[in-house]
Write a structure and sequence with these properties.
277 residues; Alpha-Beta Plaits; six-stranded parallel sheet
């Protein structure tokens, strides 16, 4: 309970499920819910829920630094490879909790020596897509690590997906999403502001977070009454109020100050009123 089917990919088509949705074999389903409820769901589905406690990062550039810093804040032990000696010294001073290794992160023997076989997550952030892909394939072959691979060329998405190398990080896509969010935010009314925007499923769907103002046309209306007034292909996935995450029910209402997460196959939303017909 309290976990929603957010997006379903079926034979190349993206579907926003409604109450009549029936899962089919080979559906790719994205769920949304709190971490606690997601863990409960995964356990019921007999899926692994082991928390990552160690991470190995290849590449000590800006992304590698900020990622390592955040992982350390989460209590994850970080080992970071960087082949530039001066950069290693800089990273060592900025990240005293991390293990900084001055070495070529593409050296497989070195990776094995430093414990890649036992690491919880493996993240490739070199400047070459080919290196990142091959490193992730190697990690998959020698460990059970969760892999994250940085890819610059977004046009190779279908091919990369077929390799089954875990999560893919597209810096260009992330940058584009931030620009789109900023541009859309410029046209926000006082009714709501776009706080977050993510493009998912190869751009066929979006996840948006709106901060609700008091004059928004969705305030104080039970979702059971609001749903018929909404455009097709939209799901109100979550309501956050005063630090509490609310799983939407038919009787739930949206209030001023709420952060509301919307999942949609429609595009171009600037304001919460855009979800209405």
């Amino acid at each position: 309970s309290n976990v929603l089917f957010a997006v379903v990919s079926r034979a190349g088509e993206v579907i926003i499920p409604d109450g009549n949705f029936v899962p089919q074999v080979k559906d790719e389903i994205s769920f949304i819910g709190t971490s606690k409820n997601m863990v409960k769901l995964f356990r019921r589905l007999h899926l692994p829920t082991v928390r990552v406690s160690t991470s190995m990062i290849i590449g000590g550039g800006a992304i590698g630094y900020y990622l390592a810093k955040q992982l350390i804040d989460y209590g994850i032990r970080v080992t970071l490879f960087e082949k530039d000696h001066a950069r290693c010294k800089e990273l060592s001073s900025k990240l005293p909790e991390a293990i900084i290794i001055h070495a070529d992160g593409t050296d497989k023997d070195m990776l094995l020596e430093e414990g890649i076989a036992d690491v919880g997550s493996f993240i490739t952030l070199t400047g070459l897509d080919e290196e990142n892909i091959m490193l992730s394939l190697f990690a998959k072959s020698v460990s059970k690590a969760k892999c994250v691979t940085k890819i610059h060329h977004v046009n190779y998405g279908a091919i990369i997906d077929s390799l089954n190398i875990g999560s893919i990080l597209y810096p260009k896509t992330i940058t584009a999403e931030r620009i789109v969010r900023f541009v859309r935010g410029l046209s926000n009314s006082f009714d709501s502001n776009i706080e977050t925007l993510y493009s998912i499923n190869d751009g066929k769907a979006e996840v948006l977070e709106f901060l609700i103002g008091e004059n928004a046309p969705v305030v104080d209306i039970p979702l059971a009454q609001l749903n018929p007034r909404m455009k097709d292909g939209i799901l109100i996935a979550s309501i956050m109020r005063g630090g509490e995450v609310i799983s939407p029910q038919g009787s739930s209402t949206i209030q001023k100050g709420d952060s509301v997460i919307i999942v949609t196959t429609q595009t171009g939303f600037h304001d919460i009123r855009d979800i209405l017909k």
